[in-house]
């Protein structure tokens, strides 16, 4: 059992939870994730470890409520317990000294990005961060990221915060500026965003790392449910990833497989009380 | 006295038949197919045992259950004594009585079987074990030795690890079991379906281990949460029984289409996560026409599961013939009764998809049997140009599993063979002092009872190792 120590709302349906998990806090590295099961009978879902405090024995999770399980998760009050938290899983981010690195976060991907981005300056990198979202309320962690970023650029689709447009618009300007053109890009967010970033950097040969979010069950390599194709080879994201070379990822396959249980997900949502369902539908749009 | 029956009288008794749910009824539920013997049936069957002096059945059992002894007690109607003998030798008798391939082990060498059917040892083991589960108050009280002060870590709570835990706890050692998943049992939990092994049986067997002091920590992924080196520092000895849970992929086109599962994923969703129930959030694609590729017990479990999930056609696709199938005869028989189709001498060439990325068919190659291969089985050879398409919407790959490298990748000093299995001596000792291993991580995918045999044998070796450390 894993005690919930804090549970804050960062954006509509986006929560930051701190959980007591001393074993995981002690060894986790940026880029790794946990598998969480909220309650007996619940499903197992993967969540990136956003941060950890070894002294306090805690880990931080960022969670977007998009369905039944994530709603139950963010609805767990402080002092209550999560039934199961297993990890840290996956490969840590392979952080090198690239030079100028642009970190791009879309939606909740910004939270996944955060621990990796924060580890970059210590390895001698200069970080520029781009955060994108649908509108102002969905922009998260701007303050936290600005602590170690040379600059944080915000883009919103409706122009309600920062510049109007997509993260790729901001990235293109950086690439076009010889003084700021990055040696590496790390992009984490919805599949269409990661694909667009990878397509933008490809002709320039800029190394582009993405973090993939396929469906997972065990997270330990025993089932292959999370398989992705990278450079023509089948890989298990839970043990070989979740980070891969964005120029080699088969994004069509990823988004296709992510839709495998859409009907079941809708059916589960229909079982929710009206008020909760409305909350999800409104955000998912 | 019953045990004074003459051999001729024993030989005159017919082998008992296991009561079963009818095929028509059972394909609509996940309840156990075999319903178990009544006490009357069990005692009658026990009387068939000749109580022979040579006792080949004991040697035929990988955990060396004193079979004639527990059967003799059962024949006398002394169930507490039968249970005492059985439980002393076997940590998981209610499991073994259900899933062991007795026909190739204890029952194959039964003297009574030389003329007529062998004694139904598996059914009797199950009967006594189930009686023990139902009557804990009537069991002989187990007396544990004084604690030795030695600590042993066991990695993996599957059949090998659970057996190891029971053996070591009964020798007075402090045992901690580490399990990566959220629940115990390994393949007993996620692999073998409810209709062959109800999960409440696993729960009770595990509870019995906790009652004798075994500590269990779930959600600990050794190799990630803690390393083998850390366990070696904290414990006096370590046993690795983390299995062979890495699916072998088919490596054919279409393998990543929606509706294609490894048997591990398919069975984990259904067994561990209970996706067959409507009130749980873990989903599963319930195909109308399901092809399962392979001929082992895992393939039978998957194909029979698909039937219970509502498939109209459930088809085994196997590249040899039924004779070569590694699955238990009983499972093949049950599958056939349940309307499973067997497509033999057929190998998958490609999984075909529709424009939305869903499985719509399986392109197969017809095979014929050629010369025997290294395993002694006749090798399947393609019949050139003879291909056909099977109209299916779910494909389950049950061609096998390999060693999961998650732990071994973080223990560079641990010697492995070329397939990634841990190398041990005949008693389970690895290349690292104080580290032992057994079950599928050593053997590759094998059976529950062989893993248990490894656990029992290595427990002896660990006990001797710990005594030397004093």
TrEMBL record, chain A:
Residues 1-95 form the FAD-binding FR-type domain. InterPro entries: Cyt_c3_hydrogenase_gsu, Dihydroorotate_DH_Fe-S-bd, FAD-bd_FR_type, FNR_nucleotide-bd, PyrK_electron_transfer, Riboflavin_synthase-like_b-brl. It comes from the Bacteria. Transmembrane segments: none annotated. GO terms for biological process: pyrimidine nucleotide biosynthetic process. The keyword Iron applies. Binds 1 [2Fe-2S] cluster per subunit. [2Fe-2S] cluster binds at residues 223, 226, 238. One of its GO terms (molecular function) is flavin adenine dinucleotide binding. SUPFAM superfamilies: Ferredoxin reductase-like, C-terminal NADP-linked domain, Riboflavin synthase domain-like. Keywords: 2Fe-2S, Iron, Iron-sulfur, Metal-binding. Its cofactor is [2Fe-2S] cluster. Gene3D superfamilies: Nucleotide-binding domain of ferredoxin-NADP reductase (FNR) module, Translation factors. PANTHER family: DIHYDROOROTATE DEHYDROGENASE B (NAD(+)), ELECTRON TRANSFER SUBUNIT, DIHYDROOROTATE DEHYDROGENASE B (NAD(+)), ELECTRON TRANSFER SUBUNIT-RELATED. This is Ferredoxin-NADP reductase. It comes from Syntrophotalea acetylenica. The lineage of its organism: Bacteria, Pseudomonadati, Thermodesulfobacteriota, Desulfuromonadia, Desulfuromonadales.
From TrEMBL, chain B:
One of its GO terms (molecular function) is iron-sulfur cluster binding. Residues 27-134 form the Dihydroprymidine dehydrogenase domain. Residues 150-455 form the FAD/NAD(P)-binding domain. Pfam families: Fer4_20, Pyr_redox_2. InterPro entries: DPD_II (IPR028261), FAD/NAD-bd_sf (IPR036188), FAD/NAD-binding_dom (IPR023753), Helical_ferredxn (IPR009051), SudA-like (IPR006004). This is Glutamate synthase (NADPH), homotetrameric. It comes from Syntrophotalea acetylenica.
């Amino acid at each position: 059992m894993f005690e919930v120590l804090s549970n804050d709302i960062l954006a509509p349906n986006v929560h930051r939870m701190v959980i007591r998990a001393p074993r995981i806090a002690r060894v986790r590295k940026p880029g790794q994730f946990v598998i969480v099961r909220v309650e007996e009978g619940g499903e197992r879902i993967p969540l990136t470890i956003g941060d950890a405090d070894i002294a306090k024995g805690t880990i931080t999770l960022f969670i977007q409520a998009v369905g039944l399980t994530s709603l139950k998760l963010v609805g767990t009050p402080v002092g209550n317990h999560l039934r199961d938290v297993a990890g840290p899983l996956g490969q840590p981010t392979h952080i090198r000294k690239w030079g100028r690195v642009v970190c791009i976060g879309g939606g909740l991907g910004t939270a996944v990005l955060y621990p990796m981005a924060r580890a970059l300056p210590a390895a001698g990198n200069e970080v520029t961060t781009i955060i994108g979202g649908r509108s102002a309320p969905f922009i998260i962690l701007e303050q936290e990221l600005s602590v170690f970023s040379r600059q944080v650029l915000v883009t919103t689709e409706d122009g309600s915060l920062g510049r109007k447009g997509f993260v790729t618009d901001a990235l293109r300007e950086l690439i076009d500026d010889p003084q700021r053109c990055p040696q590496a890009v790390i992009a984490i967010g919805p599949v269409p965003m990661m694909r667009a970033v990878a397509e933008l950097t490809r002709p320039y040969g800029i190394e582009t790392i993405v973090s993939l979010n396929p469906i997972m069950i065990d997270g330990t390599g025993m089932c292959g449910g999370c398989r992705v194709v990278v450079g023509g080879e089948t890989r298990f994201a839970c043990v070989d990833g979740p980070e891969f070379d964005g120029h080699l990822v088969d994004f069509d396959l990823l988004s296709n497989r992510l839709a495998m249980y859409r009907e079941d997900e809708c059916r589960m949502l229909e079982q929710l009380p009206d008020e909760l369902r409305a909350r999800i539908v409104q955000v998912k749009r | 006295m019953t045990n004074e029956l003459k051999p001729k009288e024993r030989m005159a008794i017919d082998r008992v038949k296991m009561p079963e749910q009818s095929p028509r009824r059972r394909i609509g539920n996940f309840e156990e197919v075999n319903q178990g013997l009544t006490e009357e049936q069990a005692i009658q069957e026990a009387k068939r045992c000749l109580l022979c002096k040579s006792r080949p059945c004991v040697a035929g059992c990988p955990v060396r259950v004193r079979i004639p002894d527990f059967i003799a007690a059962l024949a006398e109607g002394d169930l507490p004594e039968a249970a005492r003998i059985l439980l002393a030798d076997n940590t998981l008798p209610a499991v073994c009585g259900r899933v062991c391939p007795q026909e190739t082990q204890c029952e194959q060498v039964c003297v009574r079987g030389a003329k007529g059917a062998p004694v139904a040892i598996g059914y009797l083991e199950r009967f006594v074990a189930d009686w023990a589960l139902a009557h804990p108050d009537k069991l002989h009280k187990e007396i544990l030795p004084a604690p030795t002060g030695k600590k042993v870590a066991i990695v993996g709570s599957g059949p090998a690890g659970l057996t190891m835990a029971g053996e070591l706890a009964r020798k007075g050692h402090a045992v901690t079991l580490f399990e990566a998943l959220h629940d115990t049992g390994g393949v007993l939990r996620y692999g073998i379906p409810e209709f062959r092994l109800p999960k409440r049986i696993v729960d009770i067997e595990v509870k019995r281990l906790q009652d004798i002091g075994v500590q269990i920590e779930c959600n600990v992924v050794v190799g990630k949460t803690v390393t083998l080196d850390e366990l070696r520092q904290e414990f006096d000895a370590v046993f690795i029984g983390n299995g062979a849970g890495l699916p072998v992929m088919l490596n054919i086109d279409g393998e990543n289409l929606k509706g294609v599962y490894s048997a591990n994923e398919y069975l984990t969703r259904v067994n561990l996560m209970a996706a067959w129930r409507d009130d749980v959030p873990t989903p599963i694609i319930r195909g109308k026409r399901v092809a399962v590729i392979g001929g082992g017990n895992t393939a039978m479990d998957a194909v029979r599961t698909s039937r219970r999930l509502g498939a109209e056609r459930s088809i085994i696709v196997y590249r040899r013939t039924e004779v070569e199938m590694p699955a238990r005869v009983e499972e093949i028989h049950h599958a056939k009764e349940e309307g499973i189709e067997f497509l033999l001498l057929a190998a998958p060439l490609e999984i075909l998809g529709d424009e939305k990325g869903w499985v719509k068919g399986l392109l197969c190659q017809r095979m014929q049997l050629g010369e025997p291969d290294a395993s002694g089985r006749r090798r399947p050879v393609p019949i050139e140009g003879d291909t056909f398409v099977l109209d299916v919407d779910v494909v389950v790959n049950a061609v096998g599993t390999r060693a999961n490298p998650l732990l071994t990748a973080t223990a560079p000093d641990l010697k492995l063979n070329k397939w990634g299995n841990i190398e041990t001596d005949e008693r389970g000792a690895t290349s690292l002092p104080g580290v032992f291993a057994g079950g599928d991580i050593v053997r590759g995918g094998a059976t529950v009872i062989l893993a248990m045999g490894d656990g029992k044998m290595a427990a002896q070796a660990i006990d001797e190792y710990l005594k030397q450390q004093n």
